[in-house]
Please model this.
Amino acid sequence: MSAEKKLAELKSRLLEIADLNGAASVLGWDQLTYMPPGGAAARGRQMATLAKLAQEKFIDPAIGRLLDDLRPYEESLPYEDDDASLIRVARRDYERATRVPPEFMARLNVHMSEAYMAWAEARPANDFKKVQPYLEKTLDLSRELANFFPGYEHIADPLIDYADYGMKAASVRKLFAELRAAQVPIVQAITAQEPADDSCLRKHFPEAAQMAFCEEVVRQIGYDFQRGRIDKTHHPFTTSFSVGDVRITTRVREDYLGECLFSNIHEAGHAMYEQGVDMKYDGTPLAGGTSAGVHESQSRLWENIVGRSLGFWEYFFPKLQQTFPEQLKGVSLETFYRAVNKVERSLIRTDADEVTYNLHVMLRFEFELAMLEGTLAVRDLPEAWRERFRADIGILPPDDRDGCLQDVHWFGGVIGGAFQGYTLGNVLGAQFYAAALQAHPEIPDEMKQGKFDTLHRWLIENIYRHGRKFTAPELVKRVTGGDISIEPYIAYLKAKYGQLYRL
Ligand code: ZN
Model:
């Protein structure tokens, strides 16, 4: 068989797997939006069946043989070539999937669903003791999983690879240490001042009008409704069935305008990344975002750097006032801008503002490393959490419910690699945006006129269309000419918040 035929055979097998995964995503989306409660048991089974079929098809030794046979062909092509990239990324996924025995994955999945159920009861009851044995077993299993990938520098490295391929515990730790040193003083300087008044966001805003406004905002920034739609859910997420169908979900609070608005822009950022992937990669391993960090860089760039900027609201605030004339009567643009950029010390990561957010993430990342290294025992986690939280964020969590039990991540997945992507996203978002500004200094002025296409097109051209072709470090190198750096992010924070507060 010629290389061309072998490649066609590989692509056709991978397409079947993409189809099974796409179908499972439709079921998952339905489960979290419209499915009646009675559908739960069958739906769980249906999704597990599809996942099993996809997994069996993927770890088929025939795929391994095709990948081996195609190596000379791949090596004859430039690194950036589409075929070479498809083979390279498929091989990386294949090696990762086949290193871990199915017996272990089954054990892990059973444990994770038990741990999740224990957490769902323990969190409202503020009962860390209830989840402690589950978390201890999760830690053991996380180590076991890492050890299927020997040769690592740090035991967290293989786990970080799952979300942020190419990043290492040591490099993330170094980056975060720099970030913490630069960011803690900014938080301290701001929180020592009078907090912004955000009462203009906390009135009654009827749901239908909020939804209509949010839809208009995301349409205008570039989310394509011909290839997507918005539905309601409990915890907003984005899901992709194909490049031609990338959906976002949202929730509305009638007593708080910020919820629906900013979570929509956030999810639209994730979705525009997936919609922007070159259509020719659809149904291949190259479709989709390249890493958790780069994905989050797009949601945070659109939500914060664009969606919480003064220029953005110069354009949208008069429209928002037309939508809610009573609620926003007499509210100035300046007051509204300060309100959507309110900074405060808070307990919950997902509610944190953009200045304090990274501090929430970095302490979780450090705890993951410490638990995996064995320097922090699971039973000591609540106390360690309280201490570090007080040192970094300046308040003492009153209980574990809003302390170490607040996030689902360690109870629905392994310990290691779960959190760094959020902060890498903030850092990368600012770095990419700075590069876009360098190429197109007119972007901020265009935003004041409600034009976002120069920025959107730059992001498609430099980031989105490549899908998974380049790793995050490769992408940063191509886009900025250098390595990942906190400088643009810190410069952004200082410029923006220096104008909002005295720094
Ligand atoms: Zn996100």
